[in-house]
């Protein structure tokens, strides 16, 4: 069973899921095989796919989540970056 951390600790060591998804999207643009847009704009469908993948990783217990106020989901960036390096998002690279 996952241990719940106090709210103040959640904020200091993790990112809101939507912020983490944007950060992951930007990190994926520099991966080999990525074809990022020339404009630098984010594709909404690809960003939605990244969010969906994060939820899959949470459901598969590969990422730890913390629930903050109002039910907001927080995740640890170091875990997401590990999954990026391990190729968990590589099938999304052509959609960037």
Key attributes of the depicted protein:
mainly alpha; 96 residues; 3 strands; 46% helix; 4 helices; single chain
Count all strands and give the number.
Answer: 3
Structure classification: mainly alpha
Alpha carbon gyration radius: 14 Å
How would you write the strand order of the largest sheet? 1-3-2
Low-confidence parts: 8-12
Described by strand count, sense and barrel closure, the largest sheet is: 3 strands, antiparallel
Amount of helix? 40-55%
Number of helices: 4
Distance between the termini: 36 Å
Q: Give the strand content.
A: 5-15%
User: Helix and strand string, N-terminal first?
Assistant: HEHHEEH
Shape: globular
Give the mean pLDDT: 86
Q: Can you describe this structure?
A:
46% of the residues lie in helices and 8% in strands. It has 96 residues and is mostly helical. The protein has a 3-stranded antiparallel beta sheet. Helix 2 (17-28) packs parallel to helix 4 (77-85). The N and C termini lie far apart (36 Å).
Summarize the structure.
By secondary structure, the protein is mostly helical. It contains 4 helices and 3 strands, in the order αβααββα. β2 and β3 form a beta hairpin.
Record the SSE blueprint.
Blueprint: H1 7-13, E1 15-16, H2 17-28, H3 44-59, E2 65-67, E3 73-75, H4 77-85
Antiparallel strand pairs: 1-3, 2-3
